[in-house]
Amino acid sequence: MADSNPFPLAKDELLACYRTMRTIREFEDRLHVDFSRGDIPGFVHLYAGEEATAVGIMSHLGDGDRIASTHRGHGHCIAKGVDVVAMMKEIYGRKGGCGNGKGGSMHIADLSKGMMGANGILGAGAPLVCGAALAAKYRKKNEVAICFVGDGASNQGTFLESLNLAAVWNLPVIFVVENNGYAESTSRDYATAVNSYVDRAAGFGLPGITVDGTDFFAVYEAAGEVIKRAREGGGPSLLECKMVRFHGHFEGDAQTYRAPGEMEDNRANHDCLKIFNTLVTSAGVIDAAELQAIDTTVLVQIDDAVVQAKAAPLPTLADLTTDVYVTY
Q1: Under CATH, to which class is 11-309 assigned?
Q2: Contact 32, 38 (CB under 8 A)
Q3: Which H/E stretch holds residue 221?
Q4: pLDDT tier, 3 (very low <50, low <70, confident <90, very high otherwise)
Q5: What is the pLDDT of residue 69?
Q6: What is the DSSP code string of 184-217?
Q7: Which residues pair with 174 in a beta bridge?
Q8: Which residues fall within 8 angstroms of residue 327, CB to CB, at 6 or more apart?
Q9: Where are the domains of the chain?
Q10: 133 and 175 in contact (C-beta within 8 Å)?
Q11: What angle do CA 285, 287, 288 make, to 5 degrees?
Q12: Is the predicted pLDDT of residue 286 greater than 90, yes or no?
């Protein structure tokens, strides 16, 4: 093993980041299997393939920093520190879940971790993080707020209005466009005039950066720059992460819009976990056996989460009218 480490994180931090990415991958791949069996109610939208972006960004955040997610939110939740067992219970519709089994996949939230919630309304997180960022600005705690949107949701008026509001108020916000090339089944090239979402940022006076969202280190470096800028009062930024998703828009999506061989190429050549593995092992910083050991323990963790979720009780009729109104 080499003594020098060319990466911006220490070995233990690199292992922790890999563990989080692997946890997201195994969590999503398990849901893919269990949903096909009919075990899971409702819809699920899987984040597999996009792990490097969530973990690369969230590695710079603390519990006081707020994020607003999307309908494809499991990866954001895990990267922000939300409990995996509570998440699994919520997705299975069981008590003890993040929303006591009444919200499901698209409504996972944990304010104690700064996770303001997944959201089934496209682009809806953008104005929410403007509010969180305004609060952070007045509290003067150097906290930031992050909004995640897909390339399709970035065409929503609420998103564009939020870019303008954040710029006018000089808010500590980072708008992250997770560009996986498709808005559901519509190609980005077909529906969006600009070649880069950074061009959108310039129209509102925001700096923007485009990075390879499958490269953890590229995301980590770019996110570090814009988050540091926001903490220091430099205002909002836009970060476009170009990535691939391994599954359909939703579970059950036939993906007939994909080109022949596209999915096979994505998994073979654009897998962010494989890219991370190759980089850290070829540099001699981490041994392949150490990563394999994490793979094994994460599989056990996910299996245990599913067992606990299936064993948890369902909400009762008496639970139906609880948690409807906020109480102080």
Answers
A1: alpha beta
A2: no
A3: helix 216-231
A4: low
A5: 97
A6: TTEEHHHH-SSS-THHHHHHTT--EEEEETT-HH
A7: 146, 237
A8: none
A9: 11-309
A10: no
A11: 130
A12: yes
